[in-house]
Design brief:
The structure holds four protein chains of four kinds. Chain A has nine helices and 14 strands. By secondary structure, chain A is of the alpha+beta class. Chain A has an eight-stranded mixed beta sheet. In chain A, strands 5-4-12-11 form a four-stranded antiparallel beta sheet, with no helix packed on it. Chain A has a two-stranded antiparallel ribbon with strand order 13-14. By secondary structure, chain D is of the alpha+beta class. In chain D, the strands form five sheets. Chain D has a four-stranded mixed beta sheet with strand order 8-7-6-11. A three-stranded antiparallel beta sheet of chain D has the order 1-2-3, covered by helices on one side. A three-stranded antiparallel beta sheet of chain D has the order 12-13-14. The chains are: A alpha+beta, B alpha/beta, C alpha/beta, D alpha+beta. The structure holds flavin-adenine dinucleotide and iron/sulfur cluster (SF4) (3 copies). Chain C: InterPro entries: Hydrogenase_assoc-protein, NADH_UbQ_OxRdtase-like_20kDa, NiFe_Hase_small_N_sf.
Chain lengths: 321, 283, 252, 423
């Protein structure tokens, strides 16, 4: 099924076809002007020229706060993950790679049930993008970690299928497509910022101190990161007896992150920034040696004090005083 | 409730059978998990941990203090230090609990077979080591000489003191006890040195080259004991340490328990001293 | 299960915290099943103070001898004493001028010197006078937090704390960042979350009603705000609205 | 032999108060009403704060009335700085006032007064004695709360209303949902008058001198204070007409209006040409004889009728908001100037007046808040004495119970009243 081309004028009809495969979500702008993925009720709300959404599509697979367990009647049972079929349209390749990374974490050995259930009902339709100043990647790339990918061509999109579901989508939309010779497709992306030497975290780079004193531990960097997935778990009893165990996004820059009764293994913000560096760019078991930075540029854009840990690896003369 | 494929984060139901106070803030809890848990629990290797759920409070990692019985009964020795352990200590027999696991890597038993084993426990560190000790004693012939050195702050904080004395009297192991200080006159029933664990180790002669050392205790103790053991001739890859970190999931996802690039819940909690070289934040 | 004996009352405060409890219409019947409200003057008659309480839930700051007397008797009678709301925890609005003016002047401004001034001293958090076992923050606290508290007390424990700033929830809700994008005086980075970033979600800056988050980087927040053109005085005035005496040099 | 009976603390009302009855034998000499809430000193705390902060701080004077305090403060500051607001903003604010009226009356009637009617201690017992009634009442209260929470962003100390505008305007979905909620609450509110028209087991009281704002059909645009049988005066001159006096035993002040002890609140409003919505107007017509010119014992009935009115009115406001559609929020640039501004609103408990002065930098130099409870306090003291005298010789507990019930008729809000003002 090569050489599939969708004319821009048929995009609305194509979106209607996508709805057959699940609730359609796509990039839109909120009342206050924030780009986000949300249910697409009206094609007019679609904002395909977005740079990045504030929260990556990880929110669909791994919600900010989730009731993972309920306790009652002497036992724990799985919280309801009432996932329906979902189609997310218009995802950039960095975010697709972000999901691919999360898949490695949550679908590996002993898959996480909530994540797995939602993932299996998720259809991803990627789209080509244009990097801006915040992006860490240098060129537009295509990702294979999706069902369909739309790369921009003249007055429309070349569509490539990367999965069986993708092919099913294409057949359903067959009447909207036409043959047009595919352009040489751009490089397939992967983690964008290369894996780093773990020893770098103990370098005497002056930026370490600067970061440690300016970071306000607001949490934005990891909340907005497509590959941050640390979580906290807390249990709350309910008035009617029984209780709920929730799982909520956590951030390694919070004081509590490494704390145990009577000690903190990462007592200073500096220790915690090092931990972040190590996890992001060097990887933990079992993804050791793998950088998880897909280059979406969110941490750089949303950090109130402009911390960009990657500056640590740039030659010092390039770093502003 | 049975589930076809047990989810990694749903605890098996369990209940408290019995609790026995060991000191002011530490007690031994015997818990009985539902039969469904047995298949997983029977794979337990000393040094591994379980995630114990106390309904209404939450979940904490605990290293069982003994091997599970054939019925799956677990013995957990838990100190009351905070949110979850507080509520646990208030529970009466019969109270519902939950348990998942075992998780992590325990002691490398096949490799230790045939060798002398030196167990060094500081304070509550006796809890995880006790399950190792029980294993060794139950398979007495499979190992060389077994020595337990156990240090506590003061005599009343020394856990399992009668029991350990009895085991030593049976002749299966050598037992050396020490306390940091002794406010009251020690009774004659057990002999106990006065001083720190490293002091006890200094005066001890053993076949260092052949020995495996298993160490568990509060973080500051490790640094001291490792260098003493290494200086004494124990190979770093035979110095086994059981480490403690904040843990939320136990299955390598919540990312609180990183030690260098390793995760305490997957790669540990038992590590070899040689693995931890070059990881400054490990100890 | 025997219902808990509970005292709920207020010292120097607006009753908002207690009202938040009464506003839990849906949960109220269940809640009343768990508690025996032995002392709750806002909603009950026939209150008894010389009882033993399982828990005393106290709103408000301490600013008069009467406050103090009530607080002491509750402390003596209660197994668990809960500082309920920002005033009880940090002093709250009543204490906002503690570091800049003396109580007597304030009293005189209001009462004139016509009559004998009421006895009143600088409003202070409960913990300045008694030991406090648990805390719920907020001006007012969130409904769900008080429900969590009561449920946990009934279960013999306390609710586990959230330890992140308002920004974390704010970003997760996909709000527009008012500090970055609109250069407004938002206190989100240094203020304890748990309110689901109520204010920024409606487009209004966080005014800091939940008090400082742990390890607040106060010095950096101050710098951020000064950079955005706010005056030092204005920033200090805003920050002390719910808690006087921030350490403006604090970074960790 | 003189004796003193004390009712302390007064319960089922907002704040801390007590009553002392001084008797000589069985003759009642004097009744003292003490509002003993800790002084909050808001007028002093506000000095030096910027104009934008004033409404955010002053709403903390009282949780129950935080919405109406915030709205009144916004109006007063806007009056001082000459700020105009859009229709959507004004409608949203009024919607919140009506919602405040609904939830406040419902709370007072069902949680605080109903126990008196059924002879129980409070809500807890109510839950077992009359669970259905309590539930119905709580449902009305909840409808008001939902509106407040949705429109205000928070139930107590609303955040969404701010100087010159709104944080965000409600979208259609939200408005439709609120409409639903209110419509569901309407039947119960319509029935409430039956419960609260029960006659009181104690004698008649002096006839009140009612005071309310005019015109009554524009809750945000009141410019006049009208006193029954007295002249009407412009709000901005209120200081010449309202007189306040410190009494040694209480932390709140007694006020008189044109030399009389005024009565404000639901009953006063119904007595001064109310502009009622249809269903409420019917109810009013049915009960006219129990309301017009009657003493404060009828106040709870008046509240029940107003509750119905407020729901109807809120529904109308919502319809208009839906018609207008959401408004893109763009807060006007506000430049400070030296000025004084005043505003007043009808709070659930009666007329509430705020007045502020600012210097050229926009920092507050004077703050003055006159609350309904402060206005009512003189009349309340008078009625307490009258009732105590009328019940001379009765058993003490009967008398104290009656006095407490009388106080609840006024629905006083002590938190608000104990802030006091500059003389
Ligand atoms: C592998 C392993 C084995 C352990 N074995 C035992 C044992 O046999 N006996 C025993 O008494 N304790 C043991 N601990 C420590 C025990 O898990 C903590 O004491 C317990 O988690 C404290 O929880 P809390 O809620 O009571 O305390 P809090 O201080 O209220 O703890 C809050 C949270 O922090 C985390 N936390 C706090 N302290 C620790 C800690 N030391 N380690 C990990 N997480 C922590 C917990 O997840 C807890 O929910 C072990 C820890 C680990 C990692
Ligand atoms: S976004 Fe910036 S300031 Fe906030 S936690 Fe991350 S690094 Fe720190
Ligand atoms: S608006 Fe305020 S609370 Fe929200 S992210 Fe920005 S600074 Fe933080
Ligand atoms: S956003 Fe800030 S001011 Fe608003 S409720 Fe939360 S903590 Fe309070």
């Amino acid at each position: 099924m090569a050489n599939n081309f969708l004319k821009i004028s048929r995009l609305d009809q194509f979106l209607e076809t996508l709805r057959l495969f699940g609730e359609l979500h796509a990039p839109t702008v909120s009342e206050s002007g924030v780009h986000r993925f949300s249910p697409l009720e009206d094609p007019d709300e679609l904002h395909l020229d977005y740079r990045r959404t504030q929260i990556p599509p990880k929110k669909y697979l791994f919600p900010f706060r989730e009731e993972i367990l309920h306790y009652g009647g002497g036992g724990y049972r799985e919280g309801h993950s009432s996932a329906g079929d979902l189609v997310i349209f218009g995802v950039h390749s960095c975010d697709l790679e972000g999901i691919a990374y999360l898949d490695r974490v949550f679908l590996a050995d002993r898959p996480d049930p909530g994540y797995a259930a939602r993932r299996s009902r998720l259809t991803l339709v990627g789209i080509a993008c244009e990097p801006d100043d915040f992006c860490f990647c240098t060129a537009a790339t295509e990702s294979a970690s999706c069902d369909l990918f739309l790369s921009a061509g003249q007055d429309g999109y070349h569509i490539t299928s990367y999965s069986a579901r993708g092919s099913a989508l294409l057949s359903a939309a067959d009447h909207l497509l036409e043959e047009r010779a595919a352009q040489p497709s751009p490089a397939i992306s992967g983690p964008c910022y290369p894996a780093q030497d773990p020893e770098l975290r103990f370098s005497d780079h002056p930026l370490w101190q600067k970061f440690a004193s300016t970071c306000v531990s607001c949490g934005a960097c990891s909340v907005c990161c497509p590959t941050c997935y640390c979580f906290d778990v807390r249990e709350y009893p309910t008035l009617s007896g029984g209780g709920t165990r929730i799982r909520e996004w956590d951030n390694c820059l919070f004081a509590t992150h490494g704390e145990v009764a009577g000690a903190n293994f990462r007592p200073d913000r500096l220790d915690r920034l090092r931990y972040r560096f190590l996890h992001k760019y060097c990887g933990f078991t079992p993804l050791q040696g793998m950088s998880s930075c897909v280059g979406c540029g969110r941490c750089k854009e949303f950090c109130p004090v402009d911390i960009d840990l990657r500056e640590l690896t740039v030659a010092p003369e390039k770093v502003e005083p | 409730m049975k589930q076809p494929q047990h989810s990694p984060h749903v605890p098996y139901a369990a209940h408290l059978i019995e609790r026995r106070d060991l000191s002011e803030d530490t007690a031994l809890f015997r818990i009985a998990p539902e039969p469904g848990a047995l298949a997983e629990l029977s794979s337990f290797v000393p040094g591994q941990f379980v995630q114990l759920s106390v309904p209404d409070a939450g979940e904490v990692p605990i290293s069982p203090a003994d091997l599970p019985t054939p019925e799956g009964t677990l013995e957990l020795c838990v100190r009351r230090v905070g949110h979850v352990t507080d509520l646990l200590h208030k529970l009466q027999p019969g109270a519902p609990l939950g348990v998942r696991g075992p998780f992590g890597c325990g002691f490398p038993l096949p490799e230790m077979a045939g060798h002398p084993v030196l167990l060094l426990a500081g304070g509550l560190g006796i809890a995880p080591l006790r399950s190792l000790l029980m294993h060794l004693l139950r398979h007495r012939d499979g190992y060389g000489e077994i020595t337990l050195m156990y240090g506590a702050k003061q005599p009343k904080l020394m856990l399992f003191r009668q029991e350990l004395a009895a085991l030593a009297a049976d002749g299966g192991m050598r037992l050396y006890l020490t306390v940091d200080f002794a406010p009251e006159q020690l009774d004659g029933s057990f002999s106990c040195a006065l001083g720190l664990l490293p002091d006890l180790l200094k005066g001890f002669r053993f076949d260092a080259a052949d020995t495996y050392a298993a160490v568990c205790g509060p973080p500051p103790l490790y640094r001291c004991l490792i260098s003493d053991l290494e200086a004494g001739g124990v190979a770093p890859d035979r110095i086994l340490l059981s480490l403690e970190r904040r843990m939320r999931c136990g299955v390598g996802r919540c990312c609180h328990c990183g030690i260098g690039q390793k995760l305490c819940c997957l790669d540990g909690p038992v590590f070899r001293a040689s693995d931890l070289k070059g990881i400054p934040e490990a100890l | 299960m025997r219902p808990m004996k509970v005292a709920i009352t207020g010292l120097t405060a607006c009753s908002g915290c207690q009202l938040t409890l009464l506003n839990c219409e849906d949960e109220l019947p269940e809640l009343l099943g768990l508690c025996e409200l032995v002392y709750f003057p806002l909603a009950e008659s026939g209150n008894v103070l010389d009882a033993q309480f399982d828990a005393a839930i106290v709103e408000g700051a301490v600013s008069t001898p009467k406050d103090l007397e009530l607080l002491f008797s509750l402390r003596n009678a209660a197994r668990v004493l809960v500082a309920y709301g920002t005033c009880a925890l940090f002093g709250g609005v009543a204490a906002m001028n503690n570091t800049i003016s003396c109580r007597r002047d304030l009293l005189q401004t209001v009462f004139g010197d016509a009559v004998q001034l009421p006895e009143s001293f600088a409003p202070a958090p409960l913990a300045n006078y008694v030991s406090v076992d648990a805390a719920v923050t907020g001006c007012p606290p969130e409904k769900q937090e008080i429900m969590e508290l009561v449920a946990a007390l009934a279960a013999g424990t306390l609710p586990p704390a959230r330890c992140y700033p308002v920004c974390t929830e704010c970003r997760s809700r996909e709000n527009l960042c008012l500090l970055l994008e609109k250069r407004e005086l938002c206190l989100g980075p240094v203020v304890q979350g748990g309110c689901n970033a109520r204010c920024p979600a409606t487009g209004i800056v966080c005014e800091g009603c939940r008090g400082p988050v742990r390890e607040a980087n106060v010095a950096q927040e101050l710098e951020l705000l000064l950079e955005r053109g706010f005056g030092r005085e204005e920033v200090e005035r805003r920050m002390s609205r719910f808690k006087p005496g921030w350490n403006y040099g604090q970074r960790r | 032999m003189g004796s003193v009976v004390e009712i302390a603390p007064l319960t089922r009302l907002e704040g801390h108060g007590s009553v002392r009855i001084y008797r000589e034998g069985c003759r009642v000499e004097r009744v003292e009403l003490n509002f003993i809430d800790s002084p909050r000193l808001f007028e002093a705390l506000l000095i030096g704060k910027s104009f934008a902060e004033v409404p955010e701080i002053i709403c903390r004077i009282c949780a129950l009335c935080s919405t109406v305090h915030k709205v009144t403060a916004l109006l007063a500051v806007e009056d001082a700085l000459g700020i105009e607001v859009s229709e959507v903003t004004a409608l949203t604010r009024e919607l919140m006032l009506q919602a405040g009226m609904i939830q406040d009356h419902a709370l007072h009637l069902y949680c605080l007064v109903l126990p008196d009617l059924l002879g129980v201690r409070g809500v807890a017992e109510l839950a077992s004695v009359a669970p259905e009634l309590l539930k119905a009442g709580l449902a009305v209260k909840k409808a008001g709360n939902t509106v407040l929470e949705t429109a205000g962003g928070r139930l107590i100390h609303p955040v969404n209303i701010c100087l010159g505008g709104l944080g965000r305007s409600l979208n259609k979905k939200e408005l439709v949902r609120l409409k639903d909620e209110l419509q569901q609450a309407l039947p119960a509110a319509q029935e409430a008058h039956r419960l609260f028209s029960t006659p009181f087991p104690f004698p008649e009281l002096p006839e009140p001198a009612f005071l309310a704002l005019q015109p009554s059909d524009r809750p945000l645009g009141a410019r006049l204070c009208r006193m029954a049988d007295g002249p009407t005066f412009p709000l901005r001159d209120y200081r010449q007409h309202v007189e306040e006096r410190v009494v040694g035993y209480s932390n709140a002040k007694l006020s008189t209006v044109q030399g009389k002890e005024a009565t404000v609140g639901a009953l006063a409003r119904l007595n001064l040409d109310p502009d009622l919505e249809p269903l409420a107007a019917q109810l009013f017509a049915t009960h006219k004889r129990e309301l017009v010119g009657k003493d404060v014992r009828s106040n709870n009935l008046a509240q029940a009728i107003e509750m119905c009115h407020a729901i109807e009115r809120a529904l109308r406001l919502i319809d208009r908001l839906i018609e207008l559609g959401p408004q893109r929020a763009s807060a006007p640039a506000i430049s400070p100037r030296a000025a004084t501004g005043s505003a007043a609103c009808e709070a659930p408990r009666g007329t509430l007046i705020h007045s502020y002065s600012f210097d050229a930098q926009g920092l507050c130099t004077m703050a003055d808040v006159i609350t309904p409870t402060a206005l009512n306090q003189g009349a309340l003291a008078r009625d307490l004495l009258a009732l105590a005298c009328a019940m001379e010789g009765e058993e003490t507990t009967r008398m104290t119970t009656a006095l407490e019930r009388l106080i609840r008729c006024y629905d006083p809000c002590i938190s608000c009243s104990v802030h006091l003002l500059t003389l």
